[in-house]
Design goal:
The protein is 23% helix and 33% strand. A hairpin with an 8-residue loop joins strand 21 and strand 22 (411-417). Helix 2 packs antiparallel against helix 3 and helix 3 packs antiparallel against helix 4. 40% of the residues are buried.
Amino acid sequence: MKKQVILVVACFLMVMGPSVLAQVSLERQGDKAYAVHNFARAGRLYEAAFRKTDATTKRMELAMKVASSYHRMNQFSKALQWYEDALGEERKDVEVLIWAADAAMRMGQSAKAQAFLDRALEINPLHQRAGQLKEALAKYTAHAGIPHAGLELREAPEGINSSFSDYAPRWLGNELVISSMRPAQSLVPSYDGRTMQDYSRLYLFISRADGSYGEAITLPVQQNRNVATFAWDPGRKRVFFTSCNNRRQRCTILQSDFDPVTFIFSRPRQPEFVNKKFLYGHPFVAEDGKVLYFAAKLPGGYGGNDIYSVSIKPDGSFGLPVNAGPNVNTSGEELFPAMMGDSLLVFTSNGHPGYGGLDLYASAISGAGHGRAQLLPPPLNTTADDLALSFGPGGKTGAFSSNRAGQGADDIFFFHGCLLPVLVKGRVADAVSGKPLAGAEVMIQSQTSGMQLISDDQGIFQLYHCSPARLNLKAQAAGYRQAEVGLQLNVPGRTEEVMIRLNPVAAHASLSGTVVHRETRRPIAAQPVRLVRPGMPERTAITDAQGYYVFDTVPVNRIYTLKVERQGFFNESRVVNVPETGQKLMLNRQNGYDLDFELTPVVLKKEIVINNIYYDFDKATLRESSKMELGKLVSLMRDNPAMRIQISSHTDERGRADYNERLSAMRAQAVVDYLIQSGISPSRLTAQGYGKRFPVIKNARTEEEHQQNRRTTFQVLDLNAPIQVPVSQRVSTQPKSTRLVYRVQFLITSVRRNPEVDFAAIAALASGLRIFEEEDGLLYRYEAGERYTLPEAEALRNQIRAAGFPDSFVVPYIDNKRVTMQQARQFKP
């Protein structure tokens, strides 16, 4: 019978052929390598086996094994490619889909991860792991969009990160010690099959006064082979670190005496609280030197690695390990404990609800023990692995590790600010109906920061803010009066809810005007006029047969731009500030708001009369009434930045020819000077006086006929002139003193404005132009500047007036204190 069995097996092997035998052998070798955590070798063997077979089912099975090998090495990009091969187009394997989703999440590819999870849940709607990952992804998407006031994420200084895994930053006084898998040239090269990188070593970086760090120094500890997670006990001049033996798949904690001046380590030994039978790692010594935290897999734990603490006695010996309890530990993995002061434990876990992968958590410590673990918000956590956070000197600055780049290698990131903020969840609603108000602007001010948010479709706005803090929240919405509430933040990690109710404003405004042909004065019908404001839907009105347009129910307390564009004509725009008056308001020419448009045809070298330009008698001084009309020309020049024009001035036929020539030349130059002061580049302007040479009406007799001859015109010389920065925008005057400066006040209002939205036209006048906000009781005053000479300030004022803020005026400051113009004139530096 035995001979028959051998014969059958032999026949079977002959049928299989050498290729199949090779594939089977390679796969078995891969399984053995995978079992001992040599994932690099396992992946190579599985890939070789994959190439040896043409059977679709077997290829998909081997692709899954290759993917799993890369996944275990944190090579998520490669893993994802093989997961997709393992799935093909038809395979409905929920487990493969979940692992593919996990890899995509760790690469930051949320949309792809969502697609994998949707497929998995379509196959099995009750699959627990798929549901958890989908919930984690949704949570991260929601939280990542919440701004964080008080936390700044920074790239690590140059030289600290490499193309290999750099992780577990810890401080040795002011110096930084990291764990890294970068190759060390001074040591014998090695290779870790678990990671496709070198074995982990400890590196020291010396801090510099400018915040940078010196080159990496390899610490000579235990031949620095596969060690990590440095911990410094300064009171006893000793260090602790994690040491792993790959062959035995065991990690333990070792300690050495250490001289921080010579960097000499004593021979490592195990602390007495370590039991050789169990796994230990990730030591951390509390700031007061009385407690050592670590991760371990010990009997009686909650499963996986748990966080433990052990007391350090005055003589340096240790008490008994104490489990941190169920608020910290889970059936998953809890790793990399660190303390901030004596009241906050920060650790890494994949067992608590988070964003997927390893996440950072904090637990407050009190007399009752460790509080509930709280997930640290973005940007500290992502859907990738975020781990091993620790605090630098002072407790406000620190560093942590993350593989959020998606390439498999961990990098170190620095941060500054609070870790465990308060989540402020606010809602803006109609005070009468209680309905949520979408698009409401909410200004949030504290003693240290300010921020503006916009409510969503449910009237909700959210932010993270450090505590303790007192917040002042002011909300405004179109058609509503501003409301203000205060909020006191006291307990870190809490969620504070706040409701802001706005009372509706009784009336809206209407904007109206006409659009005509500048030369013929004929109305232009069916012309679109656009009403634009950043962050709000654009509106369009169409002119009727008389060229008339109107915008009804325009929300008040807003600044808008009206724009007209027509083929064959120059573009034109107007900036209009719509105030709140508490009653129905019509903004048009009759009420002091000139919203009429006179469209100018695009024709070269044809004189076009500028209406309503008046000078003082027998002088070239422009009257104030002329400057409103010239403001339209400034707007035309701004809307068409490649246009170059000539300003021409004509007198009537009375008087001497030479006198009229000089007077007209000075008057043309006065217009050019005004345009330059309003921000138009001199290279785009030419002045020409013609005296009485070209009358419109020869031998004029009546004053009306003489008036027609006395005219100022412009003609287009070029439509493609080089665009240059106006000299008036190049503030180059060397100040005699920086104590006296000038600003231009352009708006005072009871409603706080968003400079980026409301004052974009002013900010565009000059590079780096600053906008100042001064709060005076219930009013807000807005100013632009600063300028060091009065002529420069007056030029800026003219520009701002032409940009749509006609009530602008210059205000002086001495030593940052607002003074009168008389005091500014008398000031001596």
